[in-house]
């Protein structure tokens, strides 16, 4: 599973601790415009 940090607080956490997360087998990537769109539609009840 790949983590896509959309929450600013979690993104800050990954910036500080991402190396440890990856060393433990975790994977993350930066959010794309499509990721933001999915969350926006879900928040507005359109998903």
Concise description?
The protein has helices spanning 8-23, 33-43, and strands at residues 2-3, 27-28.
Primary descriptors:
2 strands, 47 residues
Question: Could you characterize the architecture of this molecule?
Answer:
The protein is mainly alpha-helical and 47 residues long. It has one domain. 57% of the residues lie in helices and 9% in strands. The chain is built from two helices and two strands; from the N terminus they run βαβα. A two-stranded parallel ribbon has the order 1-2. The longest helix is centred in the N-terminal third of the chain and has 16 residues, at 8-23. It is elongated, with a radius of gyration of 12 Å. The two termini are 22 Å apart. The mean pLDDT is 91.
Cα end-to-end separation: 22 Å
Strand tally is 2
Number of helices: 2
Low-confidence stretches: none
Spatial strand order of the main sheet: 1-2
Q: Shape from CA axes? A: elongated
Spell out the blueprint of helices and strands.
Blueprint: E1 2-3, H1 8-23, E2 27-28, H2 33-43
Parallel strand pairs: 1-2
